[in-house]
Amino acid sequence: MTNRSTFDDVMVPNYSPLAMIPSHGKGSRLWDEDDNEYIDLAGGIAVSSLGHCHPKLVQTIQQQSEKLWHVSNVMTNQPALRLAKKLTELTFAEKVYFCNSGAEANEAALKLARKYASDKFSSEKTQIISFSESFHGRTLFTVSAGGQAKYSDGFGPLPGDILHATYNDLASVEAIISDKTCAVIIEPVQGEGGVTPASKDFLNGLRALCNQHNATLIFDEIQTGAGRTGELYAYQRYDVVPDILTTAKGIGGGFPIGAMLTTTDIAASLVVGTHGSTYGGNPLGCAVAEVVVDIISDRQLLDNVQAKHLKFIDGLDHINRRHKIFKDIRGMGLLIGCELKPEYHGKAKDLLTLALKHKLLVLVAGPNVMRLAPSLIIPDSDIEQGLMSLDKAIEQFVAEQAPAEQE
């Protein structure tokens, strides 16, 4: 028989999973092996965009599994063609490249940016600008682009010619950008870095700087895409159009799939043989993602994301008035970060653990921020019940942090 201790016996120790092991889920609820029921405000880290076991996704994967799973990229397939066509119709993009994850999508974007710069301008135009506290994946290239040393320490030598500016500080970009810059990569809302939205002026400024220096502007929308912010992609909320956009997580609704979207001109640099993915664009993943895109691109659903955002914010504000635990509550759509006050810094994981005891799943975004990324169609009743459980968990958390009374 296997249990949580089996993980320590047989799995590489790069994760430290919770004690509970989920057995099944439905909508915004999960059950563990002891049949305890949990409200899920984590969404598999912004992946389960339509909750667990959405009936249309279950039906789609069952039907496609009886037709075709994999054919390799020696051939194309209808689900991939349909999904790519819909993504180009719904976004700025004209071309799509499919892969399996966000890291792979960002890897492709960064490679394309350098290849395009070399083809069109100069082989010396290789500099990439990213931002402190950013996160772009775990490949060696993407972890180097990410602005958090804890993810790259010990893996050197790292890919070079990558600089890091300060998020929401245009002057810090102006100080380092040059005609040797091939790309600027940015999350419209930093996820792992603390759920920090970019200002519209900042993104507009980046767009202008990239135009000035013939650099591609890459929007990493792995976490902010697929309806998470109340638009299909966050760039549509900001009205700032990138040259390359990466997407994964929620676009598969839980099935592994990623994509890089770009223009015809830039895509032309990835000629046959320059990049690829064995499983990328497989019929099974694309069939599921097509249904996800059909559902989440509905205007009423996207508007409801914003309505649910306001419901969360109102409830979190009420909790904060009671317990005075959060310094800031921020985010966009159903990607919400609650930054702990300085006296609670470093203890976001403790709050997550206590929430679990109250049958609630939440996330952290660094040591000081609690993060919520629930299903985009979470029922209001589950929001209300989840917030009540969070209130109880925070009440216990604050009580446990209080200094003992002097005798």
Walk me through the structure.
- N(2)-acetyl-L-ornithine binds at residues 138, 277.
- Its EC number is 2.6.1.11.
- Homodimer.
- Pyridoxal 5'-phosphate binds at residues 102-103, 135, 220-223, 278.
- α3 (55-65) runs antiparallel to α11 (283-296), α4 runs parallel beside α11 (283-296) and α12 (299-323) runs parallel beside α14 (380-401).
- 39% of the residues lie in helices and 18% in strands.
- The chain is built from 14 helices and 17 strands.
- The model has no long low-confidence stretch (mean pLDDT 96).
- The longest helix has 25 residues, at 299-323.
- It is α/β, with parallel strands linked by helices and 407 residues long.
- The protein starts with a helix and ends in a 6-residue tail after the last helix.
- The chain is globular.
- The strands form four sheets. A seven-stranded mixed beta sheet has the order 4-12-11-10-7-5-6, sandwiched between helices. The protein has a four-stranded mixed beta sheet with strand order 1-2-3-15. Strands 13-14-17-16 form a four-stranded antiparallel beta sheet.
- The protein folds into two domains: 4-54 and 299-401, Aspartate Aminotransferase, domain 1, CATH 3.90.1150; 56-296, Aspartate Aminotransferase, domain 2.
